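Hi everyone,

Forwarding the result from last night's run.
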Amino acid sequence: MRLSNYKTNNPVFSEYFWENQKGSNKKMTVSGILIKSILCILVIAAITAYIWKLNEDGMPVKWFTLGGMLAAIIISVIISVRQHWAPFLVPLYTIAKGVFLGGFSAYAHKHFPEMPYQAIGVTIVTFFVMLLLYQTRIIVVTKKLRSVIITATVSIMVVYIISLVLNFFGIKSYIWGTSWFAIIFNCIAAIVASFALLLDFDYIERYKNKAPKFKEWLATWGLLATLIWLYVEILRLMQKLAIRF
């Protein structure tokens, strides 16, 4: 069953990146993806720590969050239509996400000093748990499971986009508060984000030693996008629970 049979509008999960595999003798490897992912995560961590320091020194970081988010979205769109630019764009995406996470995490770090570290720990544990479940085939990525995860992911992203547009016009969305509805929505989003890791693992396994070398950057991009999404959902959930209780 070809992976290209499953379509989605989400660029991170789009099989478009796995087409057109001619034109390169070097192939995508797991070690190559691992090295690139670690380097990108280190860059994100360094930028985040620097923005935390700026916030502690009294500099407002709200615009870092907004600017980083918009830049990451724009870069992602460009990557989705110009996949051969990935080796240059993914590092820029990494910087944008570092700026976003720096601003986003600064608030939590200021009001709940230990919370970002706890969220990072939960994210790491979740990553390895999902990897273990995938490698041992306790969870098998079937056509049905893949469709469910993609549908849920796209649905959640649509809800977020709509809520952001409403907020722009001064209409407060329920998903941003600390109500039980908002908490349950966060829980669902975090669960979907964790299961989205299975799709990343599945893509890498399917195309390792087959896809062109430059697509290591695309696989890295997918992993980063999922891990950052998972971290954001976990941190938001922890904040809501801390405020409510």
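DSSP finds seven helices and no strands in the chain.

Cheers,
N.
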